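Reviewers asked in the last cycle whether our approach scales beyond single polypeptides. To address this, we selected a multi-component target totalling 584 residues and predicted its structure end to end. The input consisted of the following lines:
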Amino acid sequence: MHANNRRFLYILILALGLIWIYLSRDETGASSAGMSAAPQQGFLAPDFELVTTTGETIKLSDLRGQAVLVNLWATWCPPCRAEMPAIEKVYNEYKDKGFVVLAVNMTYQDTPGRIAPFVDEHGLTFPILLDESGDMANDYQLRSLPSSYFITREGIVNEVVIGGPMAEALLRTRVESILK
Amino acid sequence: MKSGKLQLMVCIYAVLLFSCSQQQATESSLQFDAYQLPEARSISIAGNSNGELYLAYGMEHSLYVSRSIDAGRTFSDTVLATGNSQAHILPVEKPAIAVDDSNRVAVAWLELPPNFQGAGIWFAVSEDSGKTFNPPVLAATEDAGEVAMVQLAFDKDGHPLLAWINGSSLKFTRSFDGGRSFTEAERVGGGSCECCQPSIVVTPEDIFIAYRGLEAGGANGDIRDILLIHSNNGGESFEEPRRVSDTNWHIPACPIAGPSMVMNNGALFVAWMDGRFEPIGAFRRGDAWFASSNDGGKTFSTNVRINHDQDSHHTLPVIAIGPGGRIHVAWESLSQNGGANMLYYTSSDDNGTTFAPPEIVADNSDPSLGNPGKPVLFVDTLGNVTLAWLDRTGARLAIWNDPN
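The resulting structure, written as structure tokens, was:
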């Protein structure tokens, strides 16, 4: 009986240890079909759900089947502003083929009152999402602005472009690559 | 199963448990008092050799100042410094504040027009240690462009000097009458990074401005190294920019990280971030760097990396000098693989040749607080260290004594 109690105790310790190891695991890899999410080429694009300037809620994973450009920007960032006309033009050329632009404003470090006037001034018609908490920027490891992520219909990051402004011709090439 | 094998498995699991616990964020060895400024959207610290410590912080469309005479243990009531002006407050812009030893404390800020093109550069001074502020003065007006990142310093007579960025131009103005009027703003230095706040150091004879430059880099993208300009005639003219960082860092984007500069016994010390080890066009992480000059900024030392680990993104280092010439540095660190994001602190007792292993001041283990970032640092003559930063709830302060 004494040996059985000791055995039970050891098994209990082992079980508790396994539970602790499970709880201590790194949870950053949200996966789909076995793929890890990371804001890097070849990885599943980290999912996010944000509200737009028009009050709509958009979730990236709901756009599977469409090619997506996720563009991180701020109103005080000159190269961000400079590339918006090209993005708008290319968006209009390809939106009927399943191309979506999600322009995520770094609202947590921007002036909210500047966003709408900027959108109006440039006649932007794609969704402007508001990262008010900075969580999306953190998940996408924002290091500089602008940062752009070209995502395939399967939700895979096809290319990461750090900096700008992106030229129209290069934009088209990248968009056509993710529309395949 | 035999009990011997079972005991062996228990030992193995004990080792695994121990290693798992070591992967969690480590507790800081620093013992500090902590304070909070809820809803502050930006924060700066300045102090003088009288032991006065000032906080400047932005909330909504105003800048506020608060004073401490006990190294940050207690603060005076908050005073509105910007009057009726609609100050442009951004977390990425530290409030411009300057303090001297003659009861003067001043702030500078930007006011943007409705179309957000151009800006008014405003200045306000207190001559009673921050108890009251004189009416704001319009120091300069930019009719167009993207204006940002204003910075402020006093000269030896308490006359303010201002620098800011308009697009890719570094602009400068100064006053000779205590801030009642200002000279016509001029472009100084070469091209400037559009989103990186400059740093000003003023001595009785010299004005030094460290800033992140913007130089054409061809197909590899712009070069955004740290540069220094110097004036020995009160800002009437500046010498050609000198290079502080000893690399050509190509990056076609705004890294949102200006330099931090201090002077001690004639030596200049500069800290900044760059991603020199990253592939061109694929910037994912940077390191915090340090360099010094003993010849008035003519030449700078071989750059020294401040952070020890090279896995995370280390940025926004801020530098201060304490008793005995100890160099104090704090910076923020962002994990590349979903691990903990940290606020680090370190020091050097050999003029920046080496830095001690960094200590953690704060991390993002509490989801309600988010990432600690945008640090500012001040060390007084008694070695009291005040480190402030922003998180999701506002600003926090850590205060400890490091008498060296």
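The longest helix of chain B spans residues 3-22. We regard this as preliminary and will revisit it once experimental data from Aim 1 are available.
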